[in-house]
Amino acid sequence: MTMKQLPISYAYDAKHVQSLKKKYLQFAAMAIPLVVIPLFFVLTAPVEQQESRTAVPLSVPNPLEVSPEVENTSSSVDQRREVGLQRIYEPRCNFSVGKWVRHEGEGYYTNSTCSLIPDQLNCFKFGRTDSDFLKWRWRPDGCELPLFDARQFLELVRGKKLAFIGDSLGRNQMHSLQCLLSGVDFPQDNTKDAYFPRWYFPIHDFTMATFWAPALVKVLDSESDIKGRTLTNTMTVELDQPEPSWASEIEDFDYAIVTAGHWLFRHLAYNENGQLKGCSEEDSCEEGRNITALGRFYGIRRAFRTAFETLIRSKNYRGMTFLATYSPQHFENGEWNTGGTCRRTGPFIEGEASLMKYEMQTYSTQVEEFRMAQEAAREKGLKFRLLDTTKMMLMRPDGHPNFNGRSLHRNMSLADCVHWCLPGPIDAWNELLQYYLIEASVDNDAI
Predict the structure, then answer these.
(1) What is the pLDDT of residues 228-276, one digit of tens each?
(2) In-domain check, residue 35
(3) What gap in Å lies between CA 113 and CA 130, rounded to an integer?
(4) Residue 389: which of 433, 352, 438, 443 has the closest Cα?
(5) Tens digits of residue pLDDT in 97-138
(6) Could you tell me the CATH number of the domain that includes residue 130?
(7) Residue 370: CA atoms inside 13 Å, Cβ hemisphere, count?
(8) Residue 187 lies in a domain
(9) Which positions are annotated as active-site residues?
(10) pLDDT per residue over 169-178, tens digit each?
(11) Structural domain includes residue 135
(12) From what superkingdom does this record's organism come (predicted)?
């Protein structure tokens, strides 16, 4: 499948869409025509694509724009949550197309009500004084992204296990989910290794685990380098071997969320079949040796392909797999190591931001590999779903810790414009995750 053929932000293939339309037509024949028929046309209306705001020659959706609309908050949170699974499940919804709108409702949690926020992400604890960045919700075009409901989520995952596989942004989402759930079922810390935290929610017999695998594939360098204490030297990766920490345990899990990208822009040496294949760029290659610079996107493509193939080929893995797409960073007035910061206090406005070329290509590469894996997984009866958060997060330069966070291994003279404050915009990732869990419970035929 070529990039131009790739339906980047579309969550279902044509065959599946036709199946869903047939279900809705059957439902329409039995329901009140004046209500159901207009709803059908809303759900099946094509989404208008705007002209790209970047000169990158790739067939991808636009970065999205913010409109200062205010969400209707006349209905209480409880009223909106009581609509039931069937009502809030809209299988035609494309969540990657939409905008951030003002939302004056009460937040899910604070750093006072959630004691589980790590210092790195606890922006209010370490000096952030503005809170306006919390008063926005993601509104998809033409449909509703339901509010997060902790009780409903925990019922959906009762007796199950969820794995976050990848880098620290996956862990960022995990900490968000911890806080969203802890008011209903406070988790027990069953962690044995700080880089592989594991949490258990006793009332619902639900386990969350994070597998630190920033490249997704096996890394051959020293432990200190793997754990991120050096960032500029060349790291050797086995592109055709998954990181053993997650590959050896994934068959015990019911859900897997794959998140990676930023680490694959480091200086990398690529091994395949036990032999040096090449390197990510010219200055990553060893001097005096005839080694090919294959480019960063070669490594990104192969790493995601290996991860997805591992999940699909695992004999006893019957879980549901998610890809959380690339999360843009927002350094301004410099890079991460040259004085760049992220001091904004609100979302970007119309025309103010677009994906840079490397971000666009990273996103496209990830999703292309995901689509191919989704087809292969479908043949085995496995569900793959896309948490398409790239464009949604592009518009939120205001959501990062900047200097308002603390980390044991981070140089505190450098701003953090990669991770996300808690609470903050990343909570929307788990709203989207809950939607897909609802989908799976309502439509078991949705593969």
Answers:
(1) 444 557 889 999 999 999 999 999 999 999 999 999 998 899 999 999 9
(2) no
(3) 18
(4) 433
(5) 889 999 998 999 999 999 999 999 999 999 999 999 999 999
(6) 3.40.50
(7) 30
(8) yes
(9) 168, 416, 419
(10) 999 999 999 9
(11) yes
(12) Eukaryota
